[in-house]
Structure formats: C-alpha cells, structure tokens
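Thread: "does anyone have the structure for this chain?"

Original post by V.I.:
We have the sequence but no experimental structure in hand. Need at least a predicted one for the grant figures.
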Amino acid sequence: KGLSIEGYFTDKMESMSDVQPTNEEILITINDKVVLTSKNMFLLSGAPKAHKSTICLMFLMSFLSAKSIQGISMRQKGKALYIDTELSNLSFYRAFNRAKLITGIKDREINMDIHDIFLFRMLDKKQILSNIIYLLECEPDYNYLFIDGLLDLTYNFNDVEETKELLTLLQQICEKFNV
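Reply from O.Q.:
Generated one for you, tokens below.
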C-alpha cells in the first residue's frame, strides 16, 4: 500500500525493537544495555591471544560476586556451568586468578556454590558436546553455560555447514535447558 520493500522492513524492525525483555529474562547487561536474555546466546569472538578467555572469566566473576565489573553485570540466577576446552589445570588456575586480580574480586566475595568448572582439553568435539549435554541434564539449576573454546567443537570452523549445525545445536541446547 504505497510502501517500498525497504520501508516495509524498516517498519517491521522498528515494531520488533519495541518489544522489551522482562527483568526475569535479562541475564547480562553491559553498561546498562541488555546483551543476553534467557534461552539465547552471546558470542565473544576475536583474534588469537586477544584475551577472550580473560573477558569470559570476567563475566564469570561478575556472576559469582553479584557485582558490576567494568560495566558487565550478570544477574545471579541459578548456577553457571563453565567449560574450557583449551587450558590445562595449572593454566586455568592462573587465568582464573588473573581475572580475579583484574576485576578486584576477592575470594571472600565469590560464591563458590553457584558454579561448576570443567576442563575438557583432552576431549574431542563429540565428547565435549555429549559431556555438556549430560551435565545440563544432571543439573537443572544451570542458567548460564560458558564455553571457552568454541572452535574445539568443530573439525573445520570454515565449513559453513558444520558451523551452522553447531550453532543450531547450541540454540537447541539453550532452548531445551533454559541456559
């Protein structure tokens, strides 16, 4: 009715942006902007050695301490499942302590009862995925799933079909387990 195709989609996008998540659905904000709601994914990507793992651990520190850290705020809801596919025990211990130092979070401020950390460095992609699903099935209180090392869940990240299958599986996991 007189609208161009661009106008139609602009109108649709504007009406969709009016929908706001409820406080119960909001899980993560950065500088008061909602970046993650329940049953959705937040992907942190960057070049090798860009400190993605440290940033991911800063998110975890915000959750464990119920504090805003450099603008990152995570609502303490349920438990967090943190999967690392790259680091050894010692390397993870150092990275965890480095994140505490960077964020200024003290041991006494961390609620150790609301997270589980698993290091799956020695597992292949199928074993990692099956273990993640098993853990989520066993613990219904997980509301957060951190996967540090997403590339290890593919054989070839440049394969469009394999990447699409992985993302679809992760979306299904988010929906099924409410993480």
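V.I.: this helps a lot. The longest strand covers residues 142-148.
O.Q.: and The mean pLDDT is 89.
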